[in-house]
Specification:
The complex is a heterodimer of chains A (96) and B (250). Chain A contains 3 helices and 3 strands. By secondary structure, chain A is α+β, with helices and mostly antiparallel strands. In chain A, strands 2-1-3 form a 3-stranded antiparallel beta sheet, with helices on one face. Chain A is 22% helix and 21% strand. Chain B has a single domain, classed as Ferritin (Up-down Bundle), CATH 1.20.1260.10. The mean pLDDT of chain B is 95. The chains are: A alpha+beta (96), B mainly alpha (250). Chains A and B meet through helix 2 of A and helix 2 and helix 6 of B.
């Protein structure tokens, strides 16, 4: 049995600052949740990148099938009216 | 800190330098990538703590020895580290168990040292205690998983316990060089830390389904410069660059 079969894969999400969302930053192998959290700390926050870490078993992620890309995403291509680019935004609002 | 405390500081710094060096030998050889980052991370924390302690000892001594002179410029008998720090790494189980023993002890030590009446030692302790807390946590988790793992991992952990048990007693033998500083409230009384350490170790062993060895004779001598045969080989590697190219920079 290879190591990859024995040791599950985890996805790592880091929240860099208060007020920001957790962002996916990579993956790692670990035997269980506690070890995954520690490995995430050691692998991905060595340069002070994080205030909070999430780890999620990669097997728990449900992903779209690349073959469905056309059906899922192409219909949005010709609906430019959904982009908020036809409004005049007052200067006082600042960056949106 | 009175000048008499210099030797105690050097001993504590030696513990961290020598164990940090030992742990760094795993770099590039760990069983998995994640651990290949975790162990050098811990090693770097230990060497960072050693640097702070050496620098402070050098300043107090006032003889012009800086951290490099203390770390690289002494003969074997002048090193005062605990013997457990210089033992060869053995397998992963042995390395993790040693690191757990040491980190559990140092967490307690730094917690006490944070209350030292010596402001510099208290400041070093305040930073180091957080690092030791993480080292203890990481290594304890491995001890539990290996002890309560497969037949082979449990056997290896039991062998590591038998091998390392005689070297844990030295943590709690009072350093004669620190006696004055202990009485002055500067240096933690290491003997007093033993019950808390014992309780921590037993709790982790229980979770790991490991049976702690019956009390054994404590090997000692590190604090007097009497080392195991492994020490000379370690120093040959540790000191090579500074001995060959003194005061080199890059």
């Amino acid at each position: 049995m290879s190591e990859a079969e024995e040791i599950p894969l985890w996805e790592v999400f880091i929240r860099p600052r208060n007020g920001l969302a957790h962002r996916h930053c990579g993956s790692l192998h670990a035997a269980d949740a506690e070890m995954a959290l520690q490995a995430a700390r050691d692998v991905y926050t060595r340069r002070g990148e994080g205030l909070s870490v999430w780890v999620i078993p990669s097997a728990q992620i449900v992903a779209s099938d690349p073959q469905d890309r056309g059906a899922l995403f192409d219909p949005a291509d010709d609906k430019i009216y959904r982009h908020p680019s036809f409004y005049n935004i007052p200067d006082d609002v600042g960056h949106m | 800190m009175p000048a008499a405390g210099v030797a105690a500081l050097i001993g504590l710094a030696d513990d961290h330098l020598i164990l940090g060096h030992r742990l760094s030998e795993w770099c590039g050889h760990a069983p998995m990538l994640e651990e290949d980052l975790a162990m050098p991370n811990i090693a770097l924390d230990l060497i960072g703590q050693a640097r702070a302690l050496y620098s402070y000892a050098g300043d107090l001594e006032g003889a012009g020895r800086d951290e490099d002179a203390l770390a690289f410029g002494r003969m074997e008998r002048a090193y005062r580290n605990l013997l457990i720090c210089e033992l060869p790494n053995g397998d992963f189980a042995q390395t993790m168990l040693r690191q757990f023993y040491f980190a559990s002890f140092m967490q307690l030590f730094w917690q006490e040292a944070e209350r030292s009446s010596d402001a510099t030692l208290a400041a070093i302790a305040a930073k180091a205690v957080k690092e030791a807390q993480y080292h203890r946590r990481h290594c304890a988790e491995w001890v539990i998983r290996l002890g309560d793992g497969t037949d082979e991992s449990a056997r290896r952990m039991a062998e590591a316990m038998a091998l390392l048990a005689p070297y844990t007693g030295e943590f709690f033998i009072a350093d004669p060089e620190a006696c004055g500083a202990v009485e002055a409230g500067i240096w933690p009384d290491t003997q007093a830390l033993q019950p808390a350490w014992q309780a921590d170790v037993e709790q982790v062993f229980a979770a790991a389904k490991l049976v702690p060895p019956a009390s054994v004779y404590a090997q000692k001598g590190g604090r007097s410069g009497l080392h195991t045969e492994a020490m000379g080989h370690l120093l040959a590697q540790l000191q090579f660059m500074q001995r060959s190219f003194p005061d080199m920079t890059w």
